[in-house]
Amino acid sequence: MTSNQSILDRRAKAIPRGIATASPLAVARAENGEIWDVEGRRFVDFASGIAVTNTGHRHPKVMAAAQAQAEKFGHVAFQVMAYEPYVELAERLNALAPIADAKSIFFTTGAEATENAVKIARAHTGRPGVITFTGAFHGRTQLTLAMTGKAASYRTKGAPPSIGVFHVPFPIPHHGVTEEDSLRALAHVFKADVTPQEVAAIVIEPVQGEGGFYQVPTNFMRKLREICDTYGICLVTDEVQSGFARTGRMFATEHYDIEPDLMPIAKALGGGFPISGVIGKAEIMDAADPGGLGGTYGGNPISCAAALAVLDVIEEEGLCRRADEVGAKMLSRLHDFRRSNTLRPIGDVRGLGAMVAFELVKERGGHEPDPDATKAVTSAALDAGLILLSCGYYANTIRLLAPLTIDMGHLDEGLDMLEDALTQTS
Ligand SMILES: Cc1ncc(COP(=O)(O)O)c(C=O)c1O
């Protein structure tokens, strides 16, 4: 039998260490909320391939749609010939997005989506500046690296300085940054670094993903909308991680009752097949000249077909409602864990729909981050059979990203394993 170790040994020789793998495992197969490694061990999946399999691994409808498309044609390039699945996907998303008159374009990765949103905003405004937030994660290409609001280990070893990109502290009151502090910092950026008339876009994740699942406060988002309206800046809500029913709405932006100018999307859209995109106000989306946008693989037909099936599944299986149910169950257990005196100390517990996270702290009742405990808990959870991901500006957050279709018994089982891990590491 192939062992995990034999694959990891080959990986170490063949693949650079720059792509880190969170677990010492190699996957053999996966089904909805479960994964089996090459040694036949089963795991409950609370990672969903980093927020991709909201509809579960290998959802039968998504697989059937991809297979049916593969029987017709695979790649032709949308830039060579148009095809209906791309057009239909754009039509469906334009109708779903919280934007009155929308157009959509497709790419492959989340970084491409955020990068193109900025490109479109720059073409529309004719301005260079971009404002993002501390703790933000927008990707690993050179521009999106600059936009990402955490230097280590993303922006090290020769990454260029963030020319034209300015970071504002993201409001997290229990870590000492209030909404007022953030707005004051933004005013300072406008004074000291770049005038608002030179800013093309303010880019913000409605709920930070890699940054730690911190939600943008309602008033703060509305204030950003006002500021963008005042100065003609595009408000870009990065929905790459928070989109597609994860937060209990199709898009997390819908929690705010604002209309964004542009929304990068990716991850869960394809249900495991690579596709990303930008949805935006039609007049802004049309700013780039023909030929200025695109990419050979953008909007791959098999991925478009899978994405159309994902949208059907979200609707037919009521996954927005299910996200709230899954999230409520997670939050209730996490609050119990926090109250317990026998488990590892937990600080803030938070969640919007099924985008749920908690912080590990040095002392019960405090907020001082404990990154070592965070590593210990994810590792103990893996030993128990649960795949978990950490994240966070302070590296002390564990995020629970179960598929929204997870069997409720498997959800309980995963939460029991988490409790065991918190007990063992206390
Ligand atoms: C909010 C957000 N934007 C952009 C990205 C980049 O996506 P990708 O890794 O597909 O390039 C991510 C990835 O985690 C993300 O969470």
Summarize the structure.
The chain has 426 residues and is of the alpha/beta class.
Descriptors:
alpha/beta; identical protein binding; 4-stranded mixed sheet; 426 residues; globular; binds pyridoxal-5'-phosphate; 13 helices; 2 domains; Class-III_PLP-dep_AT; single chain; Aspartate Aminotransferase, domain 1; Aspartate Aminotransferase, domain 2; 16% strand
Description:
Its EC number is 2.6.1.19. GO terms for molecular function: 4-aminobutyrate:2-oxoglutarate transaminase activity; identical protein binding; pyridoxal phosphate binding. Belongs to the class-III pyridoxal-phosphate-dependent aminotransferase family. The protein is α/β, with parallel strands linked by helices. The protein folds into two domains: 4-55 and 318-424, Aspartate Aminotransferase, domain 1 (Alpha-Beta Complex), CATH 3.90.1150; 60-316, Type I PLP-dependent aspartate aminotransferase-like (Major domain) (Aspartate Aminotransferase, domain 2, 3-Layer(aba) Sandwich). It has 13 helices and 15 strands. The protein has helices spanning 4-14, 48-51, 60-72, 84-96, 110-125, 142-147, 179-192, 218-231, 282-285, 301-316, 319-339, 371-384, 408-424, and strands at 27-31, 34-37, 42-45, 102-107, 129-133, 165-168, 199-204, 234-237, 262-265, 276-281, 346-352, 355-360, 386-387, 389-391, 397-400. It has a four-stranded mixed sheet with strand order 1-2-3-13. Strands 6-5-7-8 form a four-stranded parallel sheet. The longest helix has 21 residues, at 319-339. It starts with a helix and ends with a helix. Pyridoxal-5'-phosphate binds at residues 50, 109-111, 114, 137-139, 205, 209-210, 238, 240-241, 266.
